[in-house]
């Protein structure tokens, strides 16, 4: 394994550990929208790489969104307003083994046909909010126009969405 891969793994682990240690002190963004126990904030038309989106969410106390149900997937499609957005999934560390950046189990999947492609360098998960389907792509895909940050467990578990006050 290359030295740069080890550095990436170590940095990602440290960031995950820091986010776990400080998770109970995090408040969602004031304009975040609640849904089923969590808060979400969309950042659209950004042209960010996956890593830039991940660090941007970390910087404001959230995480790059993790999808665990069909209902959450549908909610996020509406929030993404027909954009391709980054999700918090990757197989960068082991090709074909998809993981959520926050360590949750990668159980719910909504892959588009012939996805994940397994192509070299296609290690980052995107949501096509027009179709609701997922695909993998490179970190530098110019087609991806945004991301959504998520704050887990910060809202009532009603299943309905509403603006945060």
Instruction: Record the strand order, biggest sheet.
Output: 3-8-2-1-9
Fraction of helical residues:
10-25%
- The tally of structural domains comes to 1
For the termini, the CA-CA separation is 47 Å
- The total of beta strands comes to 9
For the largest beta-sheet, the strand count, sense and barrel status come to: 5 strands, antiparallel
What's the assembly state of these chains?
Answer: single chain
Mean pLDDT over the full residue set: 86
Structural class: alpha+beta
Describe this structure in words.
- The chain starts with a helix and ends with a strand.
- The protein is an alpha+beta fold and about 160 residues long.
- It is about 25% helix and about 25% strand.
- The strands form two sheets. A five-stranded antiparallel beta sheet has the order 3-8-2-1-9, sandwiched between helices.
- The model has no long low-confidence stretch (mean pLDDT about 85).
- It has helices at about 5-20, 50-60, 70-80, and strands spanning about 35, 40-45, 65, 85-90, 100, 125-130, 135, 145-150, 160-165.
- It has one domain: Mannose-Binding Protein A, Chain A.
- It has three helices and nine strands; from the N terminus they run αββαβαββββββ.
- A hairpin with a 4-residue loop joins β6 and β7 (about 135).
Question: How are the elements arranged and paired?
Answer:
Elements: H1 3-21, E1 33-35, E2 38-44, H2 50-59, E3 63-64, H3 70-80, E4 84-90, E5 99-100, E6 124-128, E7 133-137, E8 146-151, E9 161-163
Antiparallel strand pairs: 1-2, 1-9, 2-8, 3-8, 4-5, 4-6, 6-7
